[in-house]
């Protein structure tokens, strides 16, 4: 495993469009990561605008044979304003999962007509705001929600485009928590779809424009998408025939995976969906082939998130401590030894730490063989705050000379980490740096301060007492 891991490191440095090396240091989009770490307090994330653009272009090229494709970036993957600006500049549309995400999209310059609104819980005030924005569509998740939209759109007298989200009952080979089309909380039963579409067609301001689904996240192969698209198409055909009208669009959701273990990696690490067999082209073919059996003149809407930003960021952390520990059994007998390297980043910044695989490299010594087995511990008080999924089980490989103050990077951390950070143990949420299209690095979010952490407790109304 040592040999496979180090061979992949060399392959990545030699062939990956994002990386290079100079003066023993890792380069990311031709920027020296170690030098950059001297300008910003760690840990922090670095995003590449170029990689986001390249990923969107890959998706656009994959769907080239269906001109009426709308790419709606799933903003929940990373909703920083500057990241949304990069997405907007590619000409893509966007998907939001709450009223505040819609507000972020609007603040980033997206028009209402470029926004698709998802979510399993849309409260009346959120729907009121969304309907006023005249969105491209609202993906309706329940009969209750449909009735709310009917009431609010009538009160506001605003035409409201909707898609009905259905659960196609298709299982995907991914983490249980990432499956959204099989025994999930999302969507309505297939058996209810005809009745709900019929009801929607009678609502004066509700404009039924399509059906929606989402198979899941980080799905490793295309078969579930093909199967679920066929379910959706067959349902759409039946509804069109029954009610004698035509849908404007079909929304197949997202799910294009990011390869956290690259195709050339011959080692081990993480579950099967870390090294997916599917890319954007496979996803597109699975969807388009089935849709074209039905119609070629309909808009296909897709909602990629992880695929757009997953490969576009690094986490920059540091070795801040080290220790040698003995493994004892319950009788006190020695069973082995562990070299620990302690980092200033833990599951407060990388919530996926328990079952997600990341390449971890020493950016300060990127040209040295990574062959020493170590455990990587985070700064939090929890005994479980260490990274579990490495090339050697719960151990990682670093150069033998790795020491305190060396810069350690986690690759492919662009999706969901910024959104899921916590201030557990009083640790600050991180700064974020963007390497823009011109190759210049600039701060796009500052590190949280202690005063920021106390703001919600200090900034209170004069009287907060409730009398009962």
Can you tell me about this structure?
- The protein has helices at residues 2-15, 33-37, 49-62, 81-89, 99-107, 124-132, 143-156, 190-201, 223-243, 280-292, 306-309, 417-420, 450-458; strands at residues 19-22, 25-28, 31-32, 44-48, 69-74, 93-96, 115-117, 137-140, 160-165, 206-212, 249-251, 299-302, 313-328, 334-343, 360-362, 372-377, 396-398, 407-411, 431-435, 441-445.
- It is α/β, with parallel strands linked by helices.
- It has two domains: 2-47 and 311-455, Lyase, Ornithine Decarboxylase, Chain A, domain 1; 119-302, TIM Barrel, CATH 3.20.20.10.
- Strands 4, 13, 14, 15, 16, 17, 18, 19 and 20 form a nine-stranded mixed beta sheet that branches.
- The longest helix has 21 residues, at 223-243.
- 45% of the residues are buried.
- Mean pLDDT is 93; it is low at 173-179.
Features:
alpha/beta; 468 residues; 13 helices; 20 strands
CATH fold title of the largest domain: Lyase, Ornithine Decarboxylase, Chain A, domain 1
How would you state the average pLDDT, rounded?
93
Q: Determine and state the CATH class of the largest domain.
A: Mainly Beta
The tally of strands reads: 20
Q: What is the fourth-level CATH superfamily of the largest domain?
A: Lyase, Ornithine Decarboxylase, Chain A, domain 1
> Into how many domains do the coordinates divide?
2
- What's the Cα radius of gyration? 24 Å
Poorly predicted tracts of residues: 173-179
In the CATH hierarchy, the architecture of the largest domain is: Beta Barrel
Q: Globular, elongated, flat, extended or rod-shaped: what is the shape?
A: globular
Helix content: 25-40%
For the sheet with most strands, the description reads: 9 strands, mixed
Please, how many helices? 13
State which percent range the strand residues make up: 15-25%
